[in-house]
Amino acid sequence: MQAAASIERCPAPNRARFEREFAGRSRPVILTGAIDGWPALSRWTFSWFAGRHGDHRVPVHRRTGPRMDHLGVESMSLARYFEQIAEPATAKPVHLAGHCLLRELPELWRDIAVPPYVTRLGDDQPFVFFSAAGTATPLHHDLCHNLYAMVHGSKRF
Length: 157
Known about the structure:
The protein is an alpha+beta fold. 20% of the residues lie in helices and 19% in strands. It has helices at 15-21, 40-43, 46-53, 78-85, 101-104; strands spanning 9-11, 30-32, 57-63, 71-77, 94-99, 128-131. It has a 4-stranded antiparallel beta sheet, covered by helices on one side. Helix 3 runs antiparallel to helix 4.
């Protein structure tokens, strides 16, 4: 088995360099420092969301079968959702994925900035994902480019 190639890490480049070296070549990159100024980095914790927006209801995906692509969806308050995923040892297998939370809670825009690499946002973007530690997403292919901003935690691609 061949070892996976590592993804290049690059201090956040200007837009021209990003287009030329990465987007234009469909080449993945980890941009370091690109969101360092976002208030979300210090503000967006499970307890902050639960306290400030806990009554807001969101569609939560719950595994219903033996494989990760067997998912059911249920409506749940953010407070209840974060309660279920807060403790890694007892976290429930629920996932808040691909949801337009910023459209529903527009005050969250104060805590982030659209990076210069984004040419336009659709009405359903950006998506927000929250998950318990150890959550896995099945192998898939997105039809468009993605810019993934990790506010807390880690993600293996």
